[in-house]
Hints:
Elements: E1 20-30, E2 47-50, H1 53-60, H2 71-79, E3 86-93, E4 106-110, E5 116-120, E6 130-131, E7 141-145, E8 150-154, E9 162-166, H3 176-180, E10 182-183, E11 189-190, H4 195-202, E12 206-210, H5 218-227, E13 238-242, H6 251-260, E14 268-271, E15 274-277, E16 282-284, H7 285-299, E17 316-319, H8 331-338, E18 342-348, E19 351-355, H9 375-392, H10 402-421, E20 425-432, H11 440-444, E21 451-456, H12 472-478
Parallel strand pairs: 1-3, 1-12, 12-13, 13-14, 14-18
Antiparallel strand pairs: 2-3, 4-9, 5-8, 6-9, 7-8, 10-11, 15-16, 15-17, 18-19, 20-21
Amino acid sequence: MAYKHGTYGEFAKSIGAVPINSETTAVYVGTAPVNLLRGYSAAVNAPIKISNLTEAQEKLGYSKDWNSFTLCEAMEAHFNNVLGNVGPVVFINVLDPATHKKLQSKTESLTFVNGQAKIKSDTIILDTLALADKVEGTDYTVSYDFAAGTAVISSTTITEAVEATYSEVDTSAVENSDVVGQATSAGVYKGLGVIQLIYPELGLITNIIAAPKFSAVKEVYKAMVNAATKINGHWDAFVNADISITDTDTIAKAIDAKATNEMVAERSKAYWPMWKTAGGDIYHLSTLATKAMLEIDTEHDTVPMESCSNKQIISGKQYFGASSTNKGFDQQTANQLNEKGITTAVFWGGINVLWGPHTAAYDNGVITDNRVIFDNSIRTMMHVTNSFQREWGMEIDKPMTKALAETIKNREQEKVDALKAMGALIGDPVVEFNESDNTTDDMVQGNFTWSNKQTPTPPFKSGTLKVAYTTAGFAAEYGGEA
Length: 482
């Protein structure tokens, strides 16, 4: 470190507003420009916890090409949002520059100006950059400017033009199977399989899973639902998925696409179309909904008692694709999507909001189970199951006395009573330890069961005021018969 004596001022990297700290854990799976990092291997198929935009750039890279680098969309939504930021978020990047790269390397001539030369690229694999007849660390250094989208080569000795060679990533080489991934008995984790590592490595329980762009693919959606079911054999999570706008630019086509892709899981929501801001940024609604869920849960002390429907999102308009002639639709028309279990976004009450409180399993008139009607209902039930496992996990293999059975029952009753008091449940929720649920054979094997009966509070989905015309006013005003 250089010797200093006196006061100094320096420019630091710009940062976004301090994010709200949420205890709801959202996990995004997709592609990040880790090729822009030095030593990127630690950011490939690994759970990376991110709390702000600067950290995201340092650990995963950043690019404005969200179609190629899908995780950057979530970085922007959570950590550089004019409506406020919220995190932390866990990212799983499946882009591996070692395999997802172009066959031919690229060569170009660099000219240094004021000790720097720049390469405008977000596909450059920084670790492969080399200057002819020069030694990195001795003749030059390499960094990346995420704001400008350029690789910066600095040198105090190079003055002449020099030839640079480097490899580039090819994001089109990423397959849906890379996102689906795996978790093998040999300890290999890739794609959605990496979710199995989040609890043991980070100590976080996954609550929401999203994969912008990729979730619209049938095989990926199904893999997301499977990955969200009993994570590590225990945890319940919810899936936010999108219906593709490719060749799907009308409501009728969106409804058909949802059915074709079998997007009907009760632990998921389906979103359509996309969302374009005034500045030209194009978001998947699943991303904006995931961000909204974290904010709403935080307002209710982590309890997911309120739907993300009718919650404000960044100003913009519905987006159906660059070649679509669809100009959008209003709230009433959006209800055609809602009744088929599709959430959208509309202008309402002077702001832009998400619109649709149902799970993807909802189909008006065809209800298999009441818990599938609203997203907050099943997410509240997930909150309860996860809470039970988290609280009593350390009691496993201790003596199961009658006193412990009663302690667990009473504690779980306290928790549902608290949920009722805060408005998350209605009626009289009850927790029981019944003989019928605990046969002698079960107890001999050390298996014990408590019954939790609860009613999640439904959202105020619609309200109707009936106004009737009456002639009574004439009699009251002027006298005579009504």
